[in-house]
Write the structure tokens for this entry.
Amino acid sequence: MAAAELEYESVLCVKPDVSVYRIPPRASNRGYRASDWKLDHPDWTGRLRVTSKGKTAYVKLEDKVSGELFAQAPIDQYPGIAVETVTDSSRYFVIRIQDGTGRSAFIGIGFTDRGDAFDFNVSLQDHFKWVKQETEISKESQEADTRPKLDLGFKEGQTIKLNIGNMTTKKGGAAKPRVSGSGGLSLLPPPPGGKISVPPIPPPSSTAISNHVTPPPMLKPSNVSSADILLDLDAPASASKPPASAATDLWGDFSTASSAVPNQAPQQSNWVQF
């Protein structure tokens, strides 16, 4: 009851001109023929409207002005006994109309325009094609509900082991990385702490040291005093140095001083007497 309340009526096709004919009863199993009808004198003319409610389609014959219902034919399947085509024309059909009491009768309908007949036929085909698809989907869903569901969960006490490379082992060491294939390339992990070791700078080459010329040290003669060195700055290197007595004369006349050591003969003093 709840599903029926949710269904609504939709309009599939509307044709403003349709003719209705009383047809003679079928004499044999052969199909209906429109040539047996009085096509020039239809029994009723009006508007045709095709609607659907749920899986059932309805062909309704209505008055053009007031829209009053003249007759309707419920259709459960198409093609079927509720709507049949005639054997000698594509513009005429035989439909089975029903009233509210359950009585039914067969009447003929026809369209002046061939395109209107084509639209009427296609609207019924599309509706029942949709009904077929809905039925198949509903059937598949019911079969899926009755199938046993696959249980992919872990049973009680069941465990699973995962082998992942570069994971720390129980001993504290890192597992060896795996090679993906014969030609694969495995990369070692970076050093801990993100530090990068820099190679030491090599010492200067001994060859560079040997190419550097170091002047030899200046040797000081043992018999030359400090005064001689100071006074001989401007003298050429080839000139011979004067004797020690001449160097003493450059400072003036020096007198000897008595030695501070007793019991020794007096010697020249290093102090200058002015």
